[in-house]
Amino acid sequence: MIIPVLLSGGSGTRLWPLSRSVHPKQLLPLTGQQTMLQQTALRLSDLDQVAAPIVVCNEEHRFMVAEQLRRIHQQPSAILLEPVGRNTAPAVALAALQALKQDANATLLVLPADHNIAHPEALCEAIRTLTEHVEQGMLATFGIVPTKAETGYGYIQKGASLPADSADKVSQAVFTINSFVEKPDSATAQRYVGSGDYYWNSGMFMFQAARYLEELERFEPAIVACCQKALNTAQKDLDFVRVGSDDFAGCTNISIDYAVMERVSDAIVVPLDAGWNDVGSWSSLWEIGDKDCRNNVIRGDVLTHDVSNSYLHGTSRLLSAVGVDNLIIVETADAVLVARRDRAQEIKEIVHQLVSQGRPEADTPQRVARPWGWYESIDHAERFQVKHITVKPGASLSLQMHHHRAEHWVIVRGTAKITRDDEVLTLTENQSTYIPLGTKHRLENPGKIPLELIEIQSGSYLGEDDIIRFEDNYGR
Q: N or C: which terminus of the chain carries fewer CB neighbours within 10 A?
C-alpha cells in the first residue's frame, strides 16, 4: 500500500507579502482555485491502492491543514505536528514510524505540499514505474527533466539504466544515481543541461518505510531514536498527533538527501517531465501563470496600460499600473511589494528587515485563520483595535478572559450566543454588547449561516497572547 506523506512545514517567505509564516504558500491558492496542499493531495487520484495521507506540519498551521483537506473530502490517517522544524529527514522518519503502525509493508510517497505539477498524470506514471523497484528495496527519487540551465536547484547525475519492469507493464527508464550535486554556477548548469545526464532535484521520494528507517538508522541513528521517543510520548489531540517536543528537538537538522540518499548504494532516479515547479519565488509564478497578450500574469482586481512581462496580484483593492515592464507588483491589505522580476529572490532581504524590526507584517497576514473561522484587523492605534470577526455555523470561541482589554461586539450578520460571566445572551443583527476587562466570556454561532461581528478592543495591551482560556473545543 502506498501512503502519501505530505510535507507542509515551510514558511514560504520568498512569496511575501502574500505568504507569511502564519499563513504560508502551501495553504494559499496560488495557481488555481485550490490551495497547493489541496492540489498535492488530489494529484494522486488516478492511482490505485493509495491509502489516506500522513501530513507533517507545524502546530500553528494544524487547523488550516485539517480544514483544507476536509473541504476536498480527504481524511488523513494522521496529522503529525512538528514542535520545531528539523528538515526533511526527521519529518519523514516520524511519518515512516507512523506508517508502520498501519502497515508493516508500507511504501511512502514523500511529496512537498508546495510544488506545482501541471501534468499529474505523468507523475502517476512515474510512480507506477517505480513501484516494482521500490518493492525490491530500492530508494527512489524523481528527477525533473530540466527546461533551462537553472542555478537555483540542486542536480542529480544519472548512472546506468536499470532493466525494465515486468513485460506486462508499460515502464519508462529508471537509472541508478551517480551523484547529487549542489546548486551550480551558470556555466556549470549549462554544462549539466547540455550533457543530458542531469536532472533537477525535486525533493520527492518513494521508498518502503522500513527500508528508509533501516538506512537512516545506519547513518543517523540518533534521529531514529529521537523520533521513536517523540512518537512514544505523543499525545492525540482531536485529528492531530502532538509528538514529544523535547525528544524531537534533539534531532539533527538534516535533509533526506544528505542523511540517506547521497550515502546509499541502491538509490535510483526516474526522469519526470510533468510541468514541475517548486513555486519558490514570484518569478516562478509568472513563469507558470496564464499570460495575456502583453505577457503579463494578472490576479485580482487589476487595470493596466502599456504594461508587459509583469506579474500583478491584487487582493483587497484596485491595483493599477502604467508603462512598466518586467515587474512584480503584489498588493495585500497591509503591504505592497514592487520588485524587478529578475530580482524576486531578494525579497527575503525585506522579510529579514521586518523580522529584525519586530514588525507584524513579517509573519501575520491581515486576515488570520482560526479553527472557528477567521478575523481581520480593520484599524488599530496605541490603545484600541477594530476587528471584523467571522464565526462558522456551529463553531464557538473558547471560554476566555483578558487582563488588559475590554471589548465591544456589534453583530452585523447572523445570530450570536454570548456567555458573559453567569449571563447568557442571544443577539442578532444590529445588536451589541460590552465585555468588561476581566470578564469570562464566550462567543458561539448557533445558526446555519456565518456569524459576523465588529469587535472594538480597548486597553493598555492588545496582543493576541492576552488570553486566559478556561474551556476550548480545539485543545488550545
A: N
Closest CA to 9 of 64, 50, 72, 46: 64
How far from 347 is each of 195, 252, 344, CA to CA, in Å? Answer: 33, 28, 6
Q: What cell numbers appear for 474 in the block?
A: 480545539
The three cell numbers locating residue 212? 528508509
Q: How far is CA 178 from CA 150, 261, 299, in A?
A: 20, 11, 42
Q: What is the pLDDT of residues 54-92, one digit of tens each?
A: 999 998 899 999 999 999 999 999 999 999 999 999 999
Give the span between the Cα atoms of 160 and 183, in whole angstroms. Answer: 23
Q: Report pLDDT digits (tens) over 3-59.
A: 999 999 877 788 999 999 889 999 999 998 999 999 999 999 889 889 999 999 998
Contact call for residues 262 and 155 (beta carbons, < 8 A) = no
Radius of gyration in angstroms for the set of CA atoms belonging to the chain, rounded to a whole number: 25
Is residue 204 a contact partner of residue 108, using CB atoms and an 8 Å limit?
no
Give the SS3 label for residue 52: coil
**Before 184, cis peptide (omega within 30)?**
no
- Lay out the sheet containing 399-401: strands in order across: 423-427, 416-420, 441-444, 399-401, 468-471
Residue 400: is its pLDDT beyond 90?
yes
Q: Where are the alpha helices (DSSP H) in 241-393?
A: 245-249, 256, 282-288, 347-356
Residue 407 phi/psi, 5-degree rounding, is: -140, 140
Q: Is residue 296 within 8 Å of 309, Cβ to Cβ? A: yes
